[in-house]
Design goal:
Blueprint (H helix, E strand, L loop, with lengths): L2 H12 L2 H9 L19 H16 L24 H7 L4 E7 L2 E9 L4 E5 L7 E3 L5 E5 L2 E5 L7 H13 L3 H13 L12 H5 L10 E8 L2 E8 L9 E4 L5 E8 L1 H6 L10 E8 L10 E3 L5 H8 L24 H11 L10 E4 L1 E9 L5 E9 L5 E7 L8 E7 L4 E8 L2 E8 L13 E10 L2 E9 L3 E8 L25 H8 L2 E9 L7 E9 L3 E4 L4 E4 L3 E2 L2
Parallel strand pairs: 6-12, 19-26
Antiparallel strand pairs: 1-2, 1-11, 2-3, 3-4, 4-5, 5-6, 7-8, 8-9, 9-10, 10-11, 13-25, 14-15, 14-24, 15-16, 16-17, 17-18, 18-19, 20-21, 21-22, 22-23, 23-24, 26-27
């Protein structure tokens, strides 16, 4: 089981009751986070007039002759389409013409053919058109003939350029990243068209329906359009995303101020100030790739060796659309970035040591094909504002111990890592979870008592049409772990009918067993079972560890 998955799982267990409730609704779901947001004023009339003009530009050619095509009669040279043909055509479903405009000047036009899954590029600086195929090969004319390079086929390139586009246009990254993972799982070259074409097949109106955007409807020439104005993006006032009545992406418009450009230190955001506009027009297009000789750029072989390839195709039976659903993680990335930027806690602010009185040893079992197992020890000190979890990687022996410590007073998670003879620590902010009044549609059933580690345990089962969750608490244990899958915050949650006595019982108990079952895919099942409970003093001393910043490396 990957460490990042364990971190997410434990984060759901120990942070807050609200997070726990949402975890019960969807067991694989990440804890939602949010920060205070400031709603900006409405877009002024000038931007509204601009929107009307660009809608006119798109709709003017809507009913033109269907034979309006871009054709290059050079024969069938599209070998890229022979690779994963069905998966590619399932993703890239519609022809389109895309115009990239900067400060009211079109600097590139892209013609996308969904049948060929290929792009033709025209821009003023190029005497001959360029092309991109579905494996990420870029075709460039040299002295009347074409060469092609496949640098985009390296996985890092399929993420790097599109990520910069995401930042430049301020698009929600969660849907894009989920689609990147899906493309990888299907064995496709991720984002061969640098995200520009992919955006049209990724983004839907639903992805913008949260507090960072203001939704409005506009009707022109009998057509209804949905506009999402950007909120909480200082320096980008007037920016918006536009969809047509079929939910297709029409425009992405940003207006970056001079002040924002001057103050922005992010490498990803060092775009010049001014207006940027992507316009999508859906009409028939034909692209035929020219004959081309493959030419590797300097250092490409080394990059391919270091970065690896996207070729990690899953069994089609293991592809589950639920794995790529981002409806429960809207705004999480921005929230995490904000929390990171606002995180002012330093190592000097941590106590000299975190002291614990008890150890609850458990075993976590992932019911995957490999039946992965991990030993986890929960470190407990009653009344403390921190909790700790030690994890042991069997294949690394004594070098495989990591202690995750959640300091709720400092709102910081500290990772103490014993790795290859080194002792390192990293700190991460714990964002505040978003409050929710969302109703949980679970059937709750009391389970028969059972004895675990000699303690009488009572259990509850929560079940919906996809998941089943069973948890057992000991009510007569000498200690409690109130934040660990308890219902201590149930008064703030809209849980189904549940006996208040049961809530009180579980809030003051000690979890000794949990079973999480996915009715659709048993490989997702997880169990955590207590193996021992001992009164053993333990201390984690920060002085024994060297800080490692994930941004700047080791610190002295």
């Amino acid at each position: 089981m990957k460490l990042r998955h364990i971190i997410l799982l434990l984060g759901c267990f120990v942070v807050t009751p609200t997070t726990q409730a949402q975890f019960l609704k969807k067991l694989k779901k990440k804890a939602e986070q949010a920060v205070e947001r400031t709603v900006l004023n409405k877009t002024d009339e000038k931007i509204s007039k601009k929107t009307g003009k660009t809608i006119d530009d798109v709709t003017d050619g809507k009913d033109k002759d269907k034979k309006d095509k871009v054709t290059d009669k050079t024969g069938d040279t599209n070998s890229a389409l022979k690779i994963n043909t069905k998966a590619k055509q399932n993703m890239y479903r519609e022809d389109m013409v895309i115009k990239l405009q900067e400060n009211n000047q079109v600097n590139q036009t892209q013609y996308f053919d969904a049948d060929a899954v290929a792009v033709k590029l025209d821009q003023p600086s190029m005497p001959d058109p360029g092309y991109i195929d579905s494996e990420g090969f870029m075709y460039v004319s040299e002295d009347g003939s074409y060469t092609k390079t496949g640098l985009v086929a390296v996985q890092s390139q399929g993420l790097m350029a599109p990520t910069m586009m995401l930042e430049a246009y301020k698009l929600p990254p969660e849907p894009f990243m989920a689609n990147f993972q899906k493309q990888t799982d299907l064995g496709l070259t991720p984002n061969p068209f640098n995200g520009i074409v992919e955006f049209a097949f990724i983004y839907e109106p639903e992805h913008f329906r949260y507090e960072d955007f203001k939704e409005s409807q506009q009707t022109m020439r009998g057509e209804t359009y949905t506009k999402f104005e950007f909120l909480n993006e200082p320096g980008y006032e007037g920016s918006y995303v536009l969809f047509d009545s079929e939910g297709r992406l029409l425009e992405i418009y940003t207006n970056k101020s001079e002040t924002t450009a001057a103050n922005n230190q992010s490498f990803m955001s060092r775009m010049p100030p001014g207006e940027s506009l992507l316009m999508y027009e859906y009409k028939p297009v034909t692209v035929e790739l020219p004959p081309a000789i493959e030419k590797k750029v300097a250092g490409q072989g080394l990059m391919e060796m270091m970065m690896g390839s996207h070729k990690s195709k899953k069994d089609p039976n293991d592809i589950d659309e639920d794995d790529y659903d981002t409806s429960d993680s809207k705004g999480m990335t921005k929230s995490a970035r904000t929390a990171l930027n606002n995180h002012k806690v330093t190592v000097d602010m941590l106590p000299a040591s975190y002291d614990f009185d008890w150890k609850l040893k458990t075993e976590m079992v992932m019911n995957s094909k490999k039946k992965e197992t991990m030993d986890m020890t929960f470190l407990i000190k009653e009344g403390a504002t921190y909790q700790g979890t030690q994890m042991y990687m069997e294949d690394m022996g004594s070098d495989g111990k990591t202690t995750m410590l959640f300091d709720m007073e400092l709102k910081t998670m500290i990772m103490f890592m014993d790795m290859q003879g080194q002792k390192l620590l990293q700190m991460y902010p714990i964002p505040e979870p978003r409050k929710t009044t969302e109703k949980l549609d679970y059937k709750i059933t009391e389970l028969p008592n059972k004895t675990i580690l000699g303690y009488d345990c009572k259990g509850l089962q929560l079940e919906d049409d996809r998941y089943m969750f069973q948890v057992y608490h000991a009510t007569n244990a000498p200690i409690s772990l109130s934040n660990f899958m308890s219902f201590s915050g149930a008064k703030n949650m809209d849980l189904p009918d549940i006996d208040p006595k049961i809530i009180e019982q579980f809030s003051n108990g000690l979890v000794l067993e949990m079973q999480m079952m996915d009715k659709k895919k048993s490989k997702n099942n997880v169990s955590i079972i207590a193996k021992s409970l001992d009164k053993t003093p333990t201390s984690v001393k920060k002085g024994a560890y060297k800080e490692m910043s994930f941004l700047s490396g080791l610190k002295n």
